Structure formats: structure tokens, C-alpha cells
Amino acid sequence: MVKYKFLEDIAIADIAYEAYGKDLNELFENAAMAIFELSADIKTVEAKEKIEFELENEKLDNLLYDFLSEILFLKDSKYMVFRKVKVDLEEGNPNKLKAVMHGDTINPNKQHLENDIKAVTMHMFELKKDKGGYTARIVLDI
Known about the structure:
It is a single chain. The chain is of the alpha+beta class. It has one domain: Archease domain (Archease, Possible Chaperone, Chain: A, domain 1). The chain is built from two helices and seven strands. A four-stranded antiparallel β-sheet has the order 1-2-7-6. A three-stranded antiparallel β-sheet has the order 3-5-4, with helices on one face. α1 runs parallel beside α2. The chain starts with a strand and ends with a strand.
């Protein structure tokens, strides 16, 4: 099953992609993995450090936006790149998310770095349920 694909013709100064999942946990994990892959060659990133965080939001699409924004915040504030993520999402009012990410401090001598992603945008942002599970469209400002 395809986990995500990059959409080349959507935005010029941005990077657009779709993420897929049979359930919401897998969708959120795959959306994060696309960001990890866009930030660095994940084969060059060790899983030395673990970061855990929790988020809540009443709307699932806003929770996905908050989750991806938190990843970028942690990348910039902790100066880290990541290679693994595990998401445990509990639907409710509000929806609750627990995430565990593994990565390492940014070191250009050890890692092959790619794009410095600035932000998740609301431009064309979408989360939808379909017959195969879930799909999200995400546009990142680089």
C-alpha cells in the first residue's frame, strides 16, 4: 500500500503531498514520515533520542495540522531530525493524540539533510475518509 506521494504540480515555493492510512493512526504516522523524509535522508538519521507529546483538538483535521506543526516546532526548537513515529489517537470530544518520535540532533556531518520546512499551511489542507481508509493533503512552506 502506498503510504504517501509527493504532488509536484500543486505549489511552486511549497511542497505538497498526500498521506494515506487504513486508520487514523496510520494516516498520522505516514503524514509525519513524509515530513521526516523531506527533512533528511532517514537512513542517515539514528534513533538516539525519544520525544513524546500529547495533543487535543475537537476536529480531526485541526489535530493533524497541530500534530505536523508540533513536529516542525520540535525540529526547530530541539534542533532534531526524526526517523520513526508511533501515534495513538483516541477519537472523542476532544480527540486525543499521543505521539512518540525517535531521532537525533541535527548533524550535517552524519546526516544527509534535505529541505528546511518552515510551516504546515492551510492551503488546500484536507483530511477525508474514503473507501480504503483515510487520505490527507498537506502543503508545506519551505
